[in-house]
Amino acid sequence: MSEKVRFPSVVGPALAGVIDLPEGEIRGWGLFAHGFTLGKESPAASRVCKQLAREGIGMLRFDNLGIGDSEGDWGDGSFTVKVQDTVRAAAFMAERGTPVDLLVGHSWGGAAAIAAACEIVGLRALATIAAPVDPSHVERQYDSVLDRVLSDGAHEWFVGGRTLVLKRAFVEDVRRAHLRDRIGEVDLPLLVAHSPTDSTVDISNAAEIFQEARHPRSFISLEGADHLLTARGQAQRAAHIISAWADQYLDEPRPQ
Predict the structure, then answer these.
(1) What angle do CA 129, 184, 249 make, to 5 degrees?
(2) Where is the AB hydrolase-1 domain (predicted)?
(3) Which helix (H) or strand (E) holds 218?
């Protein structure tokens, strides 16, 4: 069971989301931040959220600006907007009476989740999957058009079967993002999940995040998983691990 929702981005356009409703006893509610250009229907987002919902944790997953069913221009998004829209999504969940207990971020969304966590009131636990320690790690994905973007102010970029417009302000915002400064500020239980065979974001990123994080912190190796969690059963396995890890924190009094 799922519910389609819409809420405004911090820059105005409507963002499209899906809430995977919890089955059985409701253990809590969560929010998923998807990867760089992926969207709410990507394997990591949809499969992780559906599995968490099967285990009693209702999850909101939403398309970022200009992605999937969301309105707006992707090039106006950037890292700062992604972080702020993650906070806005949590506020939307609180407004509907289902405040977020668990924040999960995949890949670039994991970096955004770390940056957003301190601003989400009442959050109990944070989990990252295959997250880079430096948001500018994504620059290698668009390095073929980077010079044109910086010289012309914007340039088309073909990725994932579609054309996006990458803007200079986007690139500059990503370069200004200093996630390492934020990791130690997160006063929440943190689970860092990463595959040792991830060829997109090396597992050394997980080591750095874990090292910078406060206790309680945990690390889980997603043996056999690829970066996008497309291999059969890997997304569900990651969700099951997150569910079991979060269980002790979902029963605690909500932070004020």
Answers:
(1) 60
(2) 31-230
(3) strand 217-221
Say how many CA atoms lie within 13 Å of 97 toward its Cβ: 0
Which residue type sits at 256? Q
The DSSP element (H or E) to which 122 belongs, if any, is none
- Asked if pLDDT for residue 213 goes beyond 90, the answer is yes
Under a CB-based contact definition with an 8 Å cutoff, are residues 189 and 249 in contact? yes
121: Cβ contacts below 8 Å, ≥ 6 apart: 90, 94, 99, 255, 256
Residue 75, beta-bridge partner list: none
Residue 205 backbone phi and psi in degrees, to 5? -65, -40
Question: Of all helices (H) and strands (E), which one includes residue 182?
Answer: helix 180-183
Measured CA to CA, the distance from residue 26 to residue 51 in angstroms comes to: 14
Q: How far apart are CA 16 and CA 98, in angstroms?
A: 18
Tokens of 60: 């909101």
Distance of CA 156 to the CA centre of its chain: 25
In 3-state terms the chain splits into helix, strand, coil percentages (rounded to 5) of 40, 25, 40
**Residue 71 Cα to chain centre, angstroms:** 19
Q: What is the pLDDT of residues 179-195, one digit of tens each?
A: 998 999 999 999 999 99
Under 8 Å between Cβ of 243 and 57: yes
Which segments of 74-172 are extended strands (E)? 102-106, 125-129, 154-159, 162-167
